Amino acid sequence: MNRENKKKHFKKGYYKTHACTDSFTCKQCGRLVVSAGAGSDHRNHCPNCLSSLHVDIEPGDRASDCGSLMEPVAVWVRKNGEWAIIHRCRRCGKLSSNRVAADDNPMKLMSIAMKPLCEPPFPLERIEEMTELMAGDGTIKF
User: Fold this and answer.
1) Model-level pTM?
2) What pLDDT does residue 109 have?
3) Which conformational region is residue 113 in: left (phi greater than 0), alpha (psi within -120 to 50 degrees), or beta?
4) 66 CB contacts (<8 Å, ≥6 apart)?
């Protein structure tokens, strides 16, 4: 296949108004990703490893020339209670937010959510000492 024919070309914003039913192989874990089961018309990351590709500048425009792997680095909760994944591009560092799909790996989502608590930027053994330094006595009062 010619390199020019590899990437489908649609009018700008095509994927914003049209469902994307294309299947793809995840560049991170190698699994086949299908659109069925996502609970949405727009599958934009692997439900197994939650990785994505940097293909958009604005959601759905497919205008990015980067094309690098975007790794899941965090999760956050939107106003309506819906979870979303923060992806960071390995090449250029761009951050993007993608809503969680219905078939996403719940263990992977929870491991990303818990990472800041499991790996704090300070030693847990010193938390009492640090609390005392902040004019507290290190105990919890009810």
Assistant:
1) 0.72
2) 95
3) alpha
4) 54, 89, 91, 92, 94
